Amino acid sequence: MSLIFSRPLFLVGFTAAAAFTLAPSALAEPAPTYEALLEKLDQNPLSIESMAAHEAAEGRALQAHARPNPTISLEAENAYGSGPFNGYDAADTTFSISQPLELWGQRGARIDAAQAQVEVTGIRRDQMRWVLSANLAQAYAEAEAASLRYDLAAQALSLTQADAEAVLALIDKGREAALRGVQAESEVEAARANVDVARANREAAFGRLSALSMLAEPITSIGDDLLNRVPQSITSEPRELPAVKVAKAELDAAERQVNVERLRARPDVTAAFGVRRFEEYRAEALAFGVSVTLPLFDRNTGAISAARAEQRAAEARLTSQEWAAQAERRAAQSSLDASISRTAAADAGEVAAEEAYRLARIGFDAGRISQLELRSSRAALIAAGNNAVDARLARALAEIALARLVGRAPFVETF
């Protein structure tokens, strides 16, 4: 049983007294469900950016399959000179076509490197999906918590007002000093200020959720959704962590790029074939040949060194990610387990605080306990309610952190 999540009978009276304070929130349309907002994540600019980056990599991979274009040339020699070469009658005209030849496996290496980049961007696209879903879940859970804290503050105000009225009644009967009434009124004003602060925090949390969800209309209320969900305590996650998958894909891409740069140092070979026309003899003959570049000045050593350095950096990142990811996964799992236990303890503490306040109120009305004891019981009840909200929020954040780490949407099995 909980002050917020299931109200006991003794709270019915002051819940009615708080109706005016809660009316704007209670009458408003609630926010879309978490699952409904998840379905719209593809419209998020960051999601669109990651998908576009993947499509760009796919386009470059497609382009990597293309072979170099041939070159067509038309040349004329021994024409429009002097002496016997006056005019065009002694000219030699050559029409030829030349084709660069990608030898040494250069084309295959280029295709492999481009395909490796497709793998990297594909994993990053999926990783962005989990990050966005985690951000959404966190904003949703924090908005829920802010709404519950506002309800708690309003209920605390009602409790304080009810206790103040009881104190004033005792003062009228001469059973309490007038000073107690001043103290009670001061407590009411402090509780009213807490309501204003909680309202501001709630509106800020609603604004963040509205902006993150790109909703046309701002959120004005939210129902209990994520905070009441109890995530399963899973001792092991079979899947490979996204951060490690990205690091492995980047290392593979770096290794393939080293091969590309190494093969670029090989000579470029071009084959040519054509027909030559001899105007003087009214005859034709074939012309063909092969040209090869000499790697005297540019052996691509700088690019090879850079590619190998990037490979070493990728290897270091992979090693770092493997160690860090395992540690973070164990920490996230431990945090989730602890938060589940904390929530159970907070609920039990709240039940005890509710009963303690109920008995304290009965004792105060009967004149058996002091106002100080009643105030202490009320403060303990309010603190227990806030502690229950904090425990549920911590449990939700632990589930969100674990889901982001292992690569899945929080609180859902498939997404």
UniProtKB/TrEMBL annotation:
Keywords noted in UniProt: Cell outer membrane, Lipoprotein, Membrane, Palmitate, Signal, Transmembrane, Transmembrane beta strand
Compartments it resides in: Cell outer membrane
Signal sequence, renumbered to the chain: 1-28
Molecular-function GO term, any one: efflux transmembrane transporter activity
Origin superkingdom: Bacteria
GO cellular component terms, semicolon-separated: membrane
UniProt cross-references to Pfam families, sorted A to Z: OEP
Family note: Belongs to the outer membrane factor (OMF) (TC 1.B.17) family.
PANTHER family, per database record: BLR4935 PROTEIN (PTHR30203:SF24), OUTER MEMBRANE CATION EFFLUX PROTEIN (PTHR30203)
Protein name (record): Outer membrane protein, cobalt-zinc-cadmium efflux system
Organism: Halopseudomonas bauzanensis
Organism lineage string: Bacteria, Pseudomonadati, Pseudomonadota, Gammaproteobacteria, Pseudomonadales
